[in-house]
Amino acid sequence: MRRRYPSDLTDAQWALIAPLVTPVSVGRRGRPPSHPMRAIVTAILYVACTGCPWRALPREFPPPGTVYWWFARWRDDHTLMRLHDRLREQCRTAAGRHAHPSAGAIDSQSVRAADTVPRHSRGFDVAKKVNGRKRHIVVDTMGLLLAVMITGAHVNDRTIARDLLWRTRLFHPRSMAR
């Protein structure tokens, strides 16, 4: 029996995401996963909630290399994005709204970067006197995330808005229909 953590999933939460993260065995090659997918997801959530490095996972979780391998795979094949979209749709439906947003808001925030952040990925925001990066986001009317981009702090909001609007239109066509 392992210790419980605040980042652990309830049975109801697991039931919502299990179909999206459980590997399909039909036509699958190679050996079957040696750790349950729920344990992998719980370990990823532990890292996300605590901010600890992958290698600092407690021993009751699957090996850090295995957990990171699954995280990287889901990130690269867009499983995490599909999971986020499905949960947002369910949240909107539960609030009595259409599953797909029809409006959104854009905002940005300049964030000071540590000296360890490479110079090519940061810039100086003259208006706010911040040397670092800038987060650009699009949220729906409920404040749920639709799109995000990270740039150097020197990038003008007007310039990046075109890219953000294009990305929002690509992934959320209904929100840009009008």
Percentage beta strand:
15-25%
Number of distinct beta strands: 4
H/I helix tally: 5
Helix content: 25-40%
Runs in which pLDDT lies below 50 for 5 or more consecutive residues are: none
Structural class: alpha+beta
Taking the alpha carbons of the first and last residues, their distance comes to: 54 Å
Shape: globular
> From the alpha-carbon coordinates, what is the Rg to the nearest angstrom?
19 Å
The count of domains is 2
Assembly type of the chains comes to single chain
Run of helices and strands: HHHHEEEEH
Mean pLDDT: 86
Strand count, sense and closure of the main sheet?
4 strands, antiparallel
Blueprint (SSEs and pairs):
Layout: H1 11-21, H2 37-50, H3 64-76, H4 79-94, E1 104-112, E2 123-125, E3 130-140, E4 145-152, H5 157-171
Antiparallel strand pairs: 1-3, 2-3, 3-4
Helix pairs in contact: 1-4, 2-3
Describe, in plain words, how this protein is organized in 3D.
This protein has helices spanning 11-21, 37-50, 64-76, 79-94, 157-171; strands spanning 104-112, 123-125, 130-140, 145-152. The chain has 178 residues and is an alpha+beta fold. It has 2 domains: 11-25 and 33-77, no CATH class; 99-176, no CATH class. Helix 1 (11-21) crosses helix 4 (79-94) and helix 2 crosses helix 3. The longest helix has 16 residues, at 79-94.
